[in-house]
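Q&A log
Question type: sequence-to-structure
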Amino acid sequence: MRLALDLSAAAASAGEVPVGAVVTRAGEVVATSANAMRTDHDPTAHAEIVAIRRAGLALGTSRLDECDLWVTLEPCAMCAGAIALARFARLYYAAEDPKGGAVAHGPRLFAQPTCHHRPEVYAGIGAGEAAEQLRAFFATRRD
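Response status: OK
Response body:
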C-alpha cells in the first residue's frame, strides 16, 4: 500500500484526484498507476483501470487470477466491474468512498448475483493517509 499511497500523492501534485493503484503477483509488483483522467483526457483512466491494463499487457493475459490489487480508495462501479472481470484473487483498499464506492457502498458489486467472480476484500489499510490526501486535495479546490 505504501507504493500506492506514493503514486496517489504524485497524482495530486499533477492535478489529478489522488488515487494510486498497484498490481502484485506473488509479492512482486507487476504494474502501477495513478489517476490520469485529466492528463489523458479519458474518463475511464482511473488508477485501477490503467493498472489493470498495464498488468494484462505485462503478463500477456486478461486473467489476473494470481494477482492482487492495492488501491488507495474504494473502487467505483466501473473499477469494481473490471476487478471482477480480471478475476483478481484479492483487493486491498485504503479509504472508503461512501459517495462513489461500489464495494462496501452503493451497489456493492461483488455481492450481486450477476457478479461471477468475487475477490477477497481487505479494507482500511492506510485509510488515514489516503483520506487525508483526498481531503487536502479537495480543500485546495474549494478555496
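Response note: The CA atoms of residues 18 and 88 lie 23 Å apart.
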